[in-house]
Amino acid sequence: MGRMRRSIPFLAVAAFSMVMLTPICGALHHCGCRPLWSGGERYCNARSAAGPHCPWCEHRWLGGVSAGLILGGQLVVFRLARRRWDATASAAAALLALPMISVGVGAIAWLPTDYPHFLATNARERLGLPAGPIPCTGRPPHAH
Predict the structure, then answer these.
(1) What is the signed CA dihedral for 40, 48, 106, 129, rounded to 10 degrees?
(2) I need a labelling partner for 24 at 20 to 30 A (CA). Which of 31, 34, 49, 121 fits?
(3) Residue 15 domain-assigned?
(4) How many independent structural domains does the chain possess?
């Protein structure tokens, strides 16, 4: 079986995960991001004049790195599962890992920002965490 054909199951996982990235962003950051078919980033607080602004949408590089780490985590799960199971079961394992990987990557990307919300409104304050050096509050929105 060719390398490309063996990659198809994971490419399907990656495509699904990237489509789900905006609702994941909204769930993690309470920012207003929705599924692509419901407006996607159009409702994100990064479009508001006043902060706080979603870290993934305000800082595209942070969102891009997060997306890459999420896919990388899923690829690790897929490849580890392939040692034991067929491609379909391995793809299912990678899909099932999406929420856990997203929360882990999201937390790592959120900590160095000053954004207040993560999984819960005002999570930074509730957890007693200081603001990080990457600003997401009080800046005017950038052009989308």
Answers:
(1) -160
(2) 49
(3) yes
(4) 1
Instruction: Give the domain range for residue 56.
Output: 3-127
Q: How far is 88 from 73, CA to CA, in rounded Å?
A: 17
Q: In the block, which residue shows the tokens 């920012």?
A: 31
Q: 110 to each of 4, 77, 90, 115, 127, how far by Cα in Å?
A: 35, 23, 29, 7, 13
Is 143 a residue whose pLDDT tops 50? no
- Of the candidates 124, 109, 120, 138, which has an alpha carbon nearest to the alpha carbon of residue 49? 138
Q: How far apart are CA 14 and CA 73, in angstroms?
A: 11
In a domain, 114, yes or no: yes
Q: Which two tokens stand for residue 70?
A: 């999420």
Residue 20 lies in a domain: yes
pTM assigned to the model: 0.90
pLDDT in tens, 84-96: 999 999 999 999 9
Distance from CA of residue 103 to its chain's centroid?
8
